[in-house]
Amino acid sequence: MRAAVLQGNSIRIRQMPDPSPLAGQLLVRPIFTGICGSDLSARKQMAAMADTLPPEAQGQMPAIIPGHEFSAEIIGIAPGTDTRLKAGDIITGLPFTHTHEGPQTIGLSPAHGGGLAELSCIDASRSFRIPDGVPHDLAALTEPLAVGLHAANLASRNRAPNVVIGCGPVGLAVILSLSLQGRGPILAADFSAERRHAASLLGADIVIDPRADSAFTHWGDLGLQPFPMSPLLERDFRGLPPGANIFECTGAQGLIDQVIKGAPPHSHIIVAGVCPHEEKLTPLDGILRELTLEFSFAYRPEEFAAALAMIEAHPDKAARLITSRQPLANTEAAFDSLASSPSEIKILIDPNA
C-alpha cells in the first residue's frame, strides 16, 4: 500500500506492507484523513530529534504513518471480531487501541499506522457507522469536533461568558459546541482573519485580533461584572460567585501564564491546546482569585458519538472548518502549509487520490 511516512525531518510517500487486523479490529480503506495539531507537534519533535543525530543514523529513527482523524470504508473484519458492522460500511472511530505495551494512539505510534495510507486498522468496538447522508469528508471531522466538545463540557464551573483563545480546529469546535448548547456570549481571539471569520459564522459574538486588542478587556461587553477577589472583602458572600470560562486552544508557549494573569476572579481555565514544552506560572496569581485550571484530553466515547450527530444535524457549520482537500502526494506540503499559513484551518488528505 502507499502511505505517507514521517521519519526524521521528512514525510515521504512510500510503499509499505499492508496491515493485518488483529482479533477485534477492522481493516479499513481511509477515505478522508485530517491533519491535526498533534501531527504537527509530532513532526516538530521528531525533526528536533533528527537534528541531534548523524545523517547515517536518521534512517533508524521510528517511522510513523500519521492520521488519527479519518472516515473509512471497511474492507475486512478480523476473525473472532464481535461486531454488527460489515464490509462496505463507512465508519469513523476512536483512534485508540490496547496492546501488551499499553494503550496506543493510532496514527501517532510506530506500531499502528493511521489514516494517511491506503489501508489502516481500527478497533471494531471503537468504530461508529457514519449515518447515510453525512458526507465522508465531514465525517472525518468527528474526532477534532469531539475534542472541542469535551473541552466545552469540562467548563462546568461557569455557564458563561466564554473566551476562546485560538481559532484553529479545536477552538472552532469549542465555539460551535458552546453555541449549540446555548452558552453565550462567546469571545474568540485569533491572529488570522480567516479563522476569526469562521469563528463568527460558528457562533462567536465578539471576535478580536490579539495584535490590536486584548481578550481580557471585554468583560463588560460579555455581561460579566467581576466579583471581589476574596470573599473576605464582603460581609455577605455565599455560594460560588460567577466568573468566565477561558479556553486556551493554541498550545503557544507562555500563554497559560498570560491567561492566568488576565482572567477575572473565579474563572475556569481549560487548556486544550497541544503544549509539549515546559511552562512557568506563579500559583499565587491563581490562588488570590480562586481560579480553576483544568487540562482537557481527547473526549469520552459518548462525546465522539455526539460530535458525529452534531455533524449530521449541522453539516453547513461543520464544513466551515475545511479549507482544502488534497491528494496523498501533497501530504508533506500540506503539513508545511498548515504549520505556516494563517488561512488554513483543516486540511483533508484523500489517500486514494
From TrEMBL:
<dbReference type="InterPro" id="IPR036291">
    <property type="entry name" value="NAD(P)-bd_dom_sf"/>
</dbReference>
<dbReference type="InterPro" id="IPR013154">
    <property type="entry name" value="ADH-like_N"/>
</dbReference>
<dbReference type="GO" id="GO:0016491">
    <property type="term" value="F:oxidoreductase activity"/>
</dbReference>
<feature type="domain" description="Alcohol dehydrogenase-like N-terminal">
    <location>
        <begin position="23"/>
        <end position="132"/>
    </location>
</feature>
<dbReference type="Pfam" id="PF08240">
    <property type="entry name" value="ADH_N"/>
</dbReference>
<dbReference type="Pfam" id="PF00107">
    <property type="entry name" value="ADH_zinc_N"/>
</dbReference>
<keyword id="KW-0560">Oxidoreductase</keyword>
<protein>
    <submittedName>
        <fullName>Zinc-binding dehydrogenase family oxidoreductase</fullName>
    </submittedName>
</protein>
<dbReference type="InterPro" id="IPR013149">
    <property type="entry name" value="ADH-like_C"/>
</dbReference>
<feature type="domain" description="Alcohol dehydrogenase-like C-terminal">
    <location>
        <begin position="169"/>
        <end position="312"/>
    </location>
</feature>
<dbReference type="InterPro" id="IPR011032">
    <property type="entry name" value="GroES-like_sf"/>
</dbReference>
